[in-house]
Structures are given as structure tokens and as C-alpha cells.
Design the sequence.
């Protein structure tokens, strides 16, 4: 979920979202103009007039001052489903710091485990068949 307050904030949030392989749902109520996006990028971006109905979200990126961040954090906390981590930054931070949002926190680690115990600990037996 992206909740930008400025055009620079929107572009920063989009960049972070796309760089981490995520799909963006943008609060259409933010009052910002929709940037022209290449088709491949536009396919990973949705503008929502009622983002509360779009979830569940893996994370939320919020731009603003402390009062706006607190208000949106409370709204996000009230959403049904799993808890949504809120990553917040001020407009100044987004303008001055390219690492205002931690990209590592927007990635989902996936691991694969193969249980070879069923083959008596011999992994080669798992490929027979």
C-alpha cells in the first residue's frame, strides 16, 4: 500500500516497491496526478479509491508528518486480516535520503527444505522413480 503526500514521495515509493518486486496499490485520494508509466510498470500498479477494501497488504509505505503517519497507522491497524507493517518517512527524508525506506524490510524470504529422512538420509534415493 502506498500513501504518498507529494509527487516526489510517490515516485520514491513506486521505485522502492518495484525494486523489491512488489505490486503497488496507491491511495487515489492522495490528490496527486497519476504519472505516465510504461506498460510493464503500469501492470504492477493499481490506483484505489477505497484501498481499505483492497487488502490484505504485505506492507504500507506512508509519507507525511507525524500526525498523518499516526492517523494512517491507526487506520491500517484496524484493517481486517494480518497486521500490516507501516514504513513511514517525512517528505524531507524522502527528498534527501535515498534509503528513507529500508528495502530489506520489503522483501519476503522464501526457503525450500527437502526432507531426506524418508529415504534413510540418502538424497539419491529421492530421485529414483
Sequence:
Amino acid at each position: 500500500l502506498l500513501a504518498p503526500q507529494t509527487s516526489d514521495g510517490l515516485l520514491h515509493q513506486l521505485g522502492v516497491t518495484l525494486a523489491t518486486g512488489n505490486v503497488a496499490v496507491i491511495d487515489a485520494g492522495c490528490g496527486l496526478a497519476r504519472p505516465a508509466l510504461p506498460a510493464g510498470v503500469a501492470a504492477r500498479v493499481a490506483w484505489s479509491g477505497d484501498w481499505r477494501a483492497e487488502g490484505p497488504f504485505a506492507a504500507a509505505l506512508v509519507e507525511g508528518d507525524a500526525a498523518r503517519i499516526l492517523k494512517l497507522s491507526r487506520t491500517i491497524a484496524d484493517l481486517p486480516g494480518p497486521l500490516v507493517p507501516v514504513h513511514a518517512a517525512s517528505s524531507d527524508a524522502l527528498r534527501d535520503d535515498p534509503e528513507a525506506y529500508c528495502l530489506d524490510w520489503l522483501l519476503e524470504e522464501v526457503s525450500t527444505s527437502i526432507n531426506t529422512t524418508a529415504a534413510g538420509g540418502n538424497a539419491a534415493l529421492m530421485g529414483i522413480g
Summary: The helical segments are 7-19, 39-42, 66-77, 91-96. The chain has four helices and five strands. The two ends are 46 Å apart (CA to CA).
